[in-house]
Design brief:
- The structure is a homodimer of 199-residue chains.
- Chain A is mostly helical and 199 residues long.
- Helix content of chain A is 76%, strand content 0%.
- Chain A is built from 9 helices and no strands.
- In chain A, α1 packs across α2 and α7 crosses α8.
- The first copy, chain A, is elongated.
- Chain A starts with a helix and ends with a helix.
- At the A-B interface, α6, α7, α8 and α9 of A face α6, α7, α8 and α9 of B.
- The first copy, chain A, binds a DNA duplex (30 and 30 nucleotides) through α1, α2 and α3.
- Chains A, B: This is TetR/AcrR family transcriptional regulator.
- Chains A, B: It comes from Pelovirga terrestris.
- Chains A, B: One of its GO terms (molecular function) is transcription cis-regulatory region binding.
Chain lengths: 199, 199
DNA sequence: AGGTAAACTCGACTCAGTTCGAGATTTATC
DNA sequence: GATAAATCTCGAACTGAGTCGAGTTTACCT
């Protein structure tokens, strides 16, 4: 039934996640020990492992949630009356801002999602969310005549996604530091894809 | 001068690197402990830290070397009489094959190089090697009239580099498993950049 | 040759993530 | 309501990366 146990579990889980994210944000991921998290959350260290398989997973889970939230907000507020390029820029910039809001979180998330130890469902689902959206965008763009009719939408999604990843790598390599720069470069790159670079 | 000491150092260093790479290859990176490496190399654990700042650096150094070697081979055997697209494909495929030869090594190298803890000189140098070459390619292509004359070569380099990184991420996410597939997709993506996707 | 300083080596230690297993708490069964 | 079964909890132990500092070797100088 309802269950005292179930209720307590949710509570404990939330306490651990909250404590962990708070500490990670304030002290950094590496500087926060599992003992720190345990005492902040008021549980034993081993208890944490009943809820999260590893230290990484605590905030990976959290990051993923935040990314989904950011995207849902975006979907609501986004008008459909703009060119697909503007739409893509808005879409990727939301993601970009969300993922780099905390530099360290973003770095760890990207490492795990783009170059995973093994291709788990978690990773595939995460990526699939992007691709579903992007393929939708290109279907619309095709109907509107904004792009050539015989293009592979999966390939196109991969193309724009790659550029987004490249910009993230540029960010983490300190090739740029301002979101404005990122957007400017993103626009240039996207235009390049649109118009081609050959005479 | 010449030095018994210097000679021994080189010998020790090589012993450590050889033992480490051998163990990493056979047992995997995580499953190999520093103690394992130390006893295989016939030195004390702490000695390793006199040669390499951390476990990662042992094979990061090795990977980087291999990448440089692969590139030098490439430069020698590559004809200049092919289109810049074919040149880029050959270039990136060499890199791709070299970096994914050992799946785990490549993964760790990419994580470290693309999303580094902090942008160290090592990382910048590593990336700069790519960009120098790419910018050179585009200069030639521009002179030959293969690309439009007013393009930013740095941006172009970033564009193709991003596509390469995207393909790597696809590889690690198991979207493809054969080098032939990678090359095929790479060609499609590169053609997309050349001709544009707009009507 | 002998002495000294610098460089090298490594056993022992610390520190943090993860696992174990025994005891406590809740739920299910009769 | 008692008892068994399942689940949850956490102190203690384990593991492996990285550090420390004392002991050893080598290079250089006079």
């Amino acid at each position: 039934m309802g269950g005292i146990r179930e209720q307590k579990k949710q509570q404990t889980r939330r306490a651990i996640e909250t404590a962990a994210i708070d500490l990670f944000s304030r002290k950094g991921f590496d500087a926060t020990s599992m003992d720190d998290i345990a005492s902040a959350a008021g549980v034993g260290k081993a208890t944490i492992y009943g809820y999260f398989p590893a230290k990484d997973d605590i905030f990976l889970h959290y990051c993923d949630d935040r990314l989904v939230t950011a995207f849902n907000q975006f979907k609501e507020q986004q008008s459909a009356d703009i060119s697909f390029v503007e739409y893509l820029i808005a879409f990727f910039m939301i993601k970009f801002a969300s993922i780099t809001e905390n530099r360290e979180f973003g770095r760890l998330l990207l490492r795990e999602m783009l170059f995973p130890r093994e291709a788990t469902d978690k990773v595939r689902d995460h990526n699939q969310r992007y691709f579903d959206i992007l393929e939708g965008v290109f279907s619309v763009a095709e109907k509107r005549g904004e792009i050539l009719p015989d293009l592979d939408h999966f390939m196109l999604s991969g193309h724009f996604f790659s550029l987004y990843v490249g910009l993230l790598a540029g960010w983490y390599g300190c090739y740029f530091n301002q979101l404005e720069e990122v957007e400017q470069n993103m626009r240039t790159l996207f235009e390049q894809v649109c118009h081609g670079i050959k005479p």
